[in-house]
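We store sequence, tokenised fold; for instance:
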Amino acid sequence: MSKLDVAIFSLAGLTAWLAATLFYAAYGGGLLEKAFWFYALNAFAAAAAATFVFQIAARLRRIPRAKRLFPAMAFGLPILGGADLVLVHFQKLMSDDPASMGRYGAFMLVLLVAVGASVFERGPQKARV
């Protein structure tokens, strides 16, 4: 993996984190935290979108499935760092409710787990005749 790959995956991860954080900031308190099923559905939708961004970047960079662990780490590091910064300053940035802070942390954790799980996905199997 080259330095350019690290930069591309880090930028893609930063973009995914920023989009998910802005979505949570816009709809978290008023909409997402009203019903658990709606929150869970949106958390999995955001995780699917982040995983999609990672997989598209990996395919465009032509990185084989077996070598996607380090790109996933480069992709996930800005998400982890950004989420930590937001969690440290959560009361100033979003809400005073400690439960809301935990929900945002879980929202980001679902993103990271989905991207991490996609690394270990097996490739398509060849048909046996």
